[in-house]
Amino acid sequence: MIKLREFSLSDLEKVIKIEKASFLNRKAFSEDYFRKLYQKSPEGFIVAEDKGKILGYAIGEVQKDCGKIISIAVYPIYRKKGIGKELANFLIEYFKKKNLKKISLQVRKNNLAAISFYKNLGFQILKTIKNYYQNGDDAYLMKRNLGA
């Protein structure tokens, strides 16, 4: 049974492994970057675990009046089992509790699986951001409004 819980620094090594396995087409987030995200928004950094094994993580933060999804990743062998959706829904509820009106994220324009995933959660593509990524790839800015 999948359990969601707050990330702790003892999870960092496992989260970095998930990061590297999930994002082969880009440089993985560094240990320092994960630490900064955790310090900035500890309640928005969660992991999904099953019997003590971490299967995925999600990071979201509050930016003024908007929630921002920084990253959601699940080990490739555990995908298509609803874990990513559970992680995303946790962040959506977290942002609702903060009384935010909308959520945004950036997704690589060629990451069709992620775009489909977010569309199924009610996100819409707002615009293209040219050269958003370090390697020059474009991103879509996606948003979702949060109901009252």
Structure description:
- The chain has one domain: Gcn5-related N-acetyltransferase (GNAT) (Aminopeptidase, 3-Layer(aba) Sandwich), CATH 3.40.630.
- The chain contains four helices and seven strands.
- It has helices spanning 12-22, 31-40, 83-97, 112-120; strands at residues 3-6, 45-50, 53-63, 66-74, 102-108, 124-129, 139-145.
- The chain has a seven-stranded mixed sheet.
- Strand 3 and strand 4 (66-74) form a beta hairpin.
Task: Name the features.
Aminopeptidase, alpha+beta, 34% strand, 148 residues, 30% helix
- H and E order: EHHEEEHEHEE
Q: Can you tell me the residue ranges where pLDDT is under 50 for at least 5 consecutive residues?
A: none
Span between termini: 31 Å
**Which CATH architecture would you pick?**
3-Layer(aba) Sandwich
State the CATH topology: Aminopeptidase
- How many structural domains? 1
CATH superfamily: Gcn5-related N-acetyltransferase (GNAT)
How many beta-strand runs?
7
Lateral arrangement of strands in the main beta sheet: 1-2-3-4-5-7-6
**Major beta-sheet overview:** 7 strands, mixed
Structural class: alpha+beta
Please indicate the percent range of residues in DSSP E strands (runs of 2 or more).
25-35%
Radius of gyration: 15 Å
What number is the mean pLDDT? 93
Q: Which percent range fits the helix content?
A: 25-40%
CATH class: Alpha Beta
What is the tally of helical segments? 4
Q: What would the principal axes of the Cα set say about the shape?
A: globular
